[in-house]
Design a protein that fits this description.
With 215 residues, the chain is mostly beta strands. It has a single domain, classed as 3-methyladenine DNA Glycosylase, Chain A, CATH 3.10.300.10. It has three helices and eight strands; from the N terminus they run H-H-E-E-E-E-E-H-E-E-E. Strands 1, 2, 3, 4, 5, 6, 7 and 8 form an eight-stranded antiparallel sheet that branches. The two termini are 18 Å apart.
């Protein structure tokens, strides 16, 4: 959820995210897993962050289904967390974070990249988990290592800010057949301004996955 040091994004234009060229799902592939329920998100943020690993991020848009496995995330623990956007209070930008869990929080950084988070914990807690990297499953290019690249590949932009992730066409789904394996915990990336929160091990990723943004 990091911006530039000092907590502000670079000035930006109103560019929209343009998905990389993709193909529809192969003929005959019809089954899509259902969305996770709101109760999944209405829990302690670190638990949600770790449990998101191995889940599928799904977007159905203009006849194309894009699916990627979540392999890297970062937790942001509300107003007391100096790296979290809600530490600056409720603003038009952060209002979604203060709302019910299970909604998408999407914002732009550096005038060119969108970042996508899921809101966690009870309404008013203003916590979230940043999705940092995806392993492509279908309908995606392989440029999904990093929050900005995965948003471009998935076609995620501000139009999805506030979207309820418990329903189509944009949601997170379980994948019980996937073996998650070892989870690594490290400090978050790009939060050097966050004082005592800088080195908290709130970045989680799958240890053996090749689509991690940074080891």
């Amino acid at each position: 959820m990091a911006d530039r040091p000092g907590g502000r994004s670079a000035p930006h234009s109103r560019r929209r995210s343009t998905p990389d060229p993709v193909s529809p799902l192969p003929e005959g592939e019809f089954f899509l897993p259902p969305p996770l329920p709101r109760s999944f998100y209405d829990r302690e943020t670190v638990a949600v962050a770790r449990d998101l690993l191995g889940k599928q991020l799904v977007r159905i848009h203009e006849g194309v289904v894009r699916r990627g496995r979540i392999v890297e995330v970062e937790g942001y623990l509300g107003p007391e967390d100096k790296a979290c956007h809600s530490a600056r209070g409720m603003t038009p930008r952060t209002k979604v974070m203060f709302g019910p869990p299970g909604h998408a929080y999407v914002y732009m950084i550096y005038g060119m990249y969108f970042c996508m988070n899921v809101v966690t914990e009870a309404e008013g807690r203003a916590c979230a988990v940043l999705i940092r990297a995806l392993e492509p499953l279908s309908g995606l290019s392989d440029k999904t290592r990093g929050p900005g690249l995965l948003c471009r590949a998935m076609g995620i932009d501000r139009s999805l800010n506030g979207h309820d992730l418990t329903c189509e066409p944009f949601y997170v789904a379980d994948d019980p057949s996937f073996p998650v394996g070892e989870i690594v915990a490290r400090p978050r990336i790009g939060v050097g301004y966050a004082e005592e929160w800088t080195d908290r091990p709130l970045r989680f990723y799958l240890s053996v996955n090749s689509f991690i943004s940074k080891r």
